[in-house]
Amino acid sequence: MSLKIVYCIPSLYYPSGMERVLTLKANYFAEVYGYEIIIVITDGKNKKPFYELSPLIKIINLDINYDDLYGKSTFKKIFLYLRKQRIFKKRLRDCLFKIKPDITISMLRREINFINSIKDGSIKVGEIHFSKANYRDFKSEKVSSFIQKVIAYFWMSQLIRKLKKLNKFVTLTEEDRLLWTELANVKTINNPLSFLPEKTSQCINRQVIAAGRYVPQKGFDLLIEAWSLVEKKHPDWKLLIYGDGDRKLLENIIKTNNLNNCFLEHSTQDIAAKYAESSIFVLSSRYEGMPMVLLEAIATGLPLVSFDCPCGPKDIINNDGILVKLGDINELAEKICFLIENEKKRKEMGLNARKNAERFKIDHIALQWKNLFEELTSNIKQ
Q: Under DSSP, is residue 341 helix (H, G, I), strand (E, B) or coil?
């Protein structure tokens, strides 16, 4: 079945998980299934997509430029945002009426507020890359906790009203799907692997690896504190954290703990090679949607130690890793030490990881999407 599908996402130039996953799926849909894929963006004019897109895919930039809002005063930000939303709604409506897609997919960014009101005839699908517990969660040091809760409740109530009107709402994990108790139109489709390299870890190098943006969500502050305990017991092992962002806080923690074998590395296009050089992968996130780094780690045959954060680790980790109570630095250090000290178990988990990665291959995940698309379009025709 030939389908025309539109994806709505803010931009493609930023190197994060949502952009990577969309690129993987869009390329596969266009090149393997022959779908006509159009990606509609609002920002990043004249910026090249970070991940390589198939030449079969068309990008339309509506040139809304929400990036202009950063640095503005609160009043001006609200005024400009509402103005940009009106422009965005009109331009997206005109765009969809011109393209006439079979399916329009919102990545649950700003267009989710009005996508259902655009009566272009396309099936509307929402795809969330965050967990419910941490989506539209309002936090501000300048606002009281009571007001924060009121705003968060209002935002979530409004979102749920929008999601109920979608033809289908897709979560990344079963754990997250079960949280959306208000909805009857929810389905789970996992993220696909971004790669399945031939070269895998032998789990013999004295190196632990972590990866992600240097932001509080990723919990690298907790990981470094845990590593200070690990380094005392195993000074011949080192921790490498690959990512970009504000590293001042993390550098201060490293300095305060006098760590000699903890290194903050810049992100790299060849992260697979860095995984293969390591023997343990650690996820210290406070929350996730479905962490791509865990999938990449198991694809490279790395055993895992991960906080049991919402959402993702519980869906991914099987007999290839260890779940740790969220935020428990002592237990995190203890489990890292366990794998350091037990080479046989480490290697066994690494082999299991590679086998478990097979279920996240792009052809398996893409088939689930294909079945969903055909189900939705056949329902419309009936």
A: helix
Please give the full DSSP string across 96-134, using - where no structure is assigned: HHHH--SEEEE-SSGGGGTGGG--SS-EEEEE--S-GGG
- Number of residues in the chain: 382
Q: What is the pLDDT of residues 25-46, one digit of tens each?
A: 999 999 999 999 999 999 998 8
Identify the structural domains of the chain with CATH numbers, from first to last. Answer: 4-192+361-381 (3.40.50.2000), 207-360 (3.40.50.2000)
pLDDT value of position 260: 96
pLDDT > 70? residue 144:
no
The two tokens of residue 206 are 């004295």
Q: What gap in Å lies between CA 321 and CA 175, rounded to an integer?
A: 18
Distance (Å, whole) CA 112 – CA 161 = 11
Q: Is the pLDDT of residue 142 over 70?
A: no
Q: Are 264 and 251 in contact (CB under 8 A)?
A: yes
Q: Which amino acid is at 160?
A: I
pTM of the complete model: 0.88
CB count within 10 Å of CB 140 equals: 10
Q: Contact, 287 vs 306, CB < 8 A?
A: no
Measuring CA to CA, which residue among 303, 295, 264 is closest to residue 357?
295
pLDDT tens-place string over residues 205-258: 999 999 999 999 999 999 999 999 999 999 999 999 999 999 999 999 999 999
18 CB neighbour count, 10 Å cutoff:
21
Residue 143 has pLDDT above 70, yes or no: no
Residue in 17, 109, 1 with CA at minimum distance from that of residue 64: 109
**Pairing status of strand 58-61 against strand 103-106:** unpaired
Cα separation of 35 and 56, whole Å?
Answer: 9
Section 48-75 average pLDDT: 92
The vertex-284 CA angle with 279 and 20, nearest 5°, equals 80
